Task: inverse folding
């Protein structure tokens, strides 16, 4: 989409924006998606240009952007019948665009979100109920045609963790079967909520809060400045002289070849689509039955139900 000048900014459509689009995704309510989105924006805006797009009708993340003024933000609701390509414009110079999503979305709505994402972060509470729910959601995600086609990198973050590393043991063991990284956990502290209530960054309250997590997130995102327009160098062809009926007439210069856009494709070491659903089933068995014992496989080649360790 062609860039437009709006309020002194060079803007473009969200899909064509060169910045890293980070999709915060989990179908289950209460996972801490908005809190994570707000906190991530607070961290990244220290060294990067960041925008927030809030797809949740509750507009929690958008409200925080208007109160804090740390990052620009906008809200968009697919249910209102707006034309997406016309409604959502972002700053072309933004290095990171955080996409906060609602709960209880349909598979069709999930496909829309996936068309936008460069990377996906899934916030999950480290409780047995939430871990069980995310395994079912991951099966749907891995079956998604858009997800398979685009091979979008995925990572997990534990939210509202009350017991630190002790609570992370089962979380890492079960989700480890999905072969997507666990970046760390957000502590179950009031500082995140206090920062939201006061319209500020949580770092202003506690600069060292969950620093290991945020360092891991930044490294995993591998944020790079937006690609600049590449200039194609065209050598000018000298004018030829043609003699015609005793007169000299310069031949027309050939047209310069069109500029080409160089597209950089990144490859990611992610789960192969054909193995993805099997890994989700394996993780589900791991949650219910504990670590697998040697040789616990099924003859039909389907995902194994893991036996409890003894």
Result:
């Amino acid at each position: 989409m062609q860039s437009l000048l709006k309020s002194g900014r060079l803007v473009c459509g969200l899909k064509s924006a060169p910045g890293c689009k980070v999709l915060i995704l989990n179908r289950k309510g209460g996972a801490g998606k908005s809190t994570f989105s707000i906190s991530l924006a607070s961290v990244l805006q220290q060294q990067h240009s960041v925008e927030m797009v809030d797809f949740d009708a509750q507009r929690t993340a958008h409200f925080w952007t208007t109160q804090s003024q740390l990052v620009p933000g906008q809200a968009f609701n697919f249910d209102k019948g707006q034309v997406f390509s016309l409604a959502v414009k972002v700053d072309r110079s933004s290095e990171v665009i955080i996409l906060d999503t609602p709960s209880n979305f349909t598979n069709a709505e999930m496909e829309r979100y996936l068309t936008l994402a460069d990377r996906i972060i899934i916030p999950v509470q480290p409780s047995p109920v939430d871990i069980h729910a995310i395994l079912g959601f991951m099966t749907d995600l891995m079956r998604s045609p858009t997800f398979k086609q685009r091979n979008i990198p995925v990572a997990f973050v534990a939210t509202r963790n009350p017991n630190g590393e002790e609570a992370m043991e089962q979380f890492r063991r079960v989700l480890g079967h999905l072969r997507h990284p666990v970046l760390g956990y957000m502590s179950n502290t009031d500082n995140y909520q206090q920062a939201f209530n006061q319209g500020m960054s949580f770092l202003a309250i506690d600069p060292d809060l969950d620093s290991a997590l945020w360092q891991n997130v930044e490294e995993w995102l591998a944020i790079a400045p937006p690609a600049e327009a590449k200039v194609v160098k065209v050598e000018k062809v000298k004018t030829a002289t043609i003699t015609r009926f005793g007169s000299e007439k310069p031949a027309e210069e050939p047209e310069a070849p069109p500029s080409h856009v160089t597209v950089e494709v990144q490859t990611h070491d992610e789960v192969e689509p054909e193995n993805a659903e099997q890994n989700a089933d394996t993780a589900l068995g791991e949650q219910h039955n504990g670590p697998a014992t040697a040789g616990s496989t099924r003859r039909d080649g389907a995902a194994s139900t893991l036996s409890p360790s003894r």
